[in-house]
Amino acid sequence: MNLLVISGSRNPNGQTATAAKAFMEGVSDAGGTGEIIFLPTMRIERCRQCDEAGWGICRSEGKCVIEDDFASIVERIKDSDMVVFADPVYFSDLSESLRAFTDRLRRTCIHESGKQGIGGKPAIGICVAGGSGGGAPASTVSLEQVIARCGFDVVDVVPARRQNLELKTEVLRATGKWFAGRLA
């Protein structure tokens, strides 16, 4: 099983990375492999809403005209067996980097060719709040809505906060192992 983690966090050693790595460890324990993409280190522009109606070829062809790292990440999603969207919580919502990526992804997935290789693919969302931790549940709702709109089979969304991260990493490790075993 090949797992792709798409992280909206810049910090490869932060709380969001800790949660994502726990899930990946579980996948590895079950014989799977995976990689993490840190979106803030990639070149991802925001949607331009190309034409006067706010659309472009995303709607008619299932692809985006912007030449950045978006298309290569989408190809990596299509090549994976499962995707985890791991995101730090800011203002009770998704990070700017994940929002920019998913805004464009859901537009391309409106067209059947854009959804090919994504529709039905298992996905899990992980939202980790630092600070008070109060925004994690609201952020998972936002993430679940957008990835479901893209056509992913949303298996689970996991809110976590710095106050319960130790517990959640154990849950994520077990979930990764269980899930990889089911996909094998």
Structure, described:
- The protein has 184 residues and is an alpha/beta fold.
- The protein has a single domain, classed as Rossmann fold, CATH 3.40.50.360.
- It is 43% helix and 20% strand.
- The protein has seven helices and five strands.
- The longest helix is centred in the C-terminal third of the chain and has 19 residues, at 165-183.
- It is globular.
- It starts with a strand and ends with a helix.
Number of strand segments: 5
Distance between the termini: 6 Å
Largest sheet geometry: 5 strands, parallel
Q: Which strands sit side by side, in order, in the main sheet?
A: 2-1-3-4-5
Which CATH architecture is right?
3-Layer(aba) Sandwich
CATH class: Alpha Beta
Query: Oligomer, anyone?
Result: single chain
Question: N-to-C SSE series?
Answer: EHEHHEHHEHEH
Helix tally? 7
- CATH-level-4 superfamily name: Flavodoxin domain
CATH topology group = Rossmann fold
Class per helix and strand makeup: alpha/beta
Cα gyration radius (Å): 16 Å
**Helical content (DSSP H or I, runs of 4+):** 40-55%
Tally of individual domains: 1
Query: What fraction strand?
Result: 15-25%
Shape: globular
